Amino acid sequence: MDRLDELSVFLAVLETGSLSGAARRLRRSAPAVTRTLAALEARAGARLIERTTRRLAVTDAGRRLADEARRVLAAYDTAMAHEDAGALRGALRISAPLVFGRRHVAPVLLRFLDAHPQVTAELVLNDRSLDLVDEGLDVAVRLAALADSSLVARRIGQVRRVVVASPEYLARRGTPRRPGDLADHEIIYSSTQPGPMEWRFEGPRPQTVRLRPRLMVNAIEAVIAAALAGRGVTRVFSYQVAEETADGRLVRLLAEHEPAPIPVQLVTPSARLMPPRVRAFLDFAAAELSALPVVQAV
Q: Are 28 and 176 members of one domain?
């Protein structure tokens, strides 16, 4: 059995907090993870993890081995990255939100492929947060706080949720000055948003405004098209309407009441034993995406 693989499995168990979590991360069966851990404990001659029906607890011997394992695997990663630095090859599978991916991630990925002719890639555009392990993804672009602590995230910037409407609509219906004014306006609502139909605002007086939309749409580009056509007020991510607000086709409203910024992150299942092509794409994408005008600095 590969000794480095044993260490990788052991650390995956510690970091995910369970044998099943390690199995999902490593894309193998739970019995296989159990066998690998047992083999490592036999080789070490000590119990590394105490297992009960409710939880796992690392022993002192396990803690010492974990420290050494991290150093060994980091050295291995560095050596392999140096060895393959000039000849990246293999397949990448990347996920990103639909509009952000189409407008910004796809061009970055194409430039990366131009620089590395032996790399192939698949870009999966989906506004749902796909499970990286279950979907076999190497990297995901997430516009959200990281909920899964077993993942590794690199924050590259932030975006905001902004309220917008067309100049024509505002000339006809007036400009809302406070969140409560939205009750007198026609609302275009994205039905892909989970939870109740409401918008939360911060600023001097945080408040939640319940909505009675005139129009509901399940695709964000159609939401934006309706706003451009003067059909009402809507709320979207700032990057989705960056061009439209810059050239005046949409007007940004209630800026002093906008919610806190939302992080833009590059997420991977693990930072260890990462193929050189994945590490290279992470570095390339982080530099390219963080330089975009639509991605505000942290």
A: no
Backbone angles phi, psi at 92, to 5 degrees: -115, 145
Rounded Cα distance between 77 and 139, Å, is: 18
138-172: pLDDT as tens digits: 999 999 887 655 678 899 999 999 999 999 999 99
Pair 241, 257: CB distance under 8 Å: no
- The rounded Cα 71 to chain-centroid distance in angstroms is 27
Domain CATH code at residue 239: 3.40.190.290
pLDDT tens digit string along 83-111? 555 678 899 999 999 989 999 999 999 99
Range of the domain at 74: 3-84
- Rounded CA gap, 25 and 230, in Å? 47
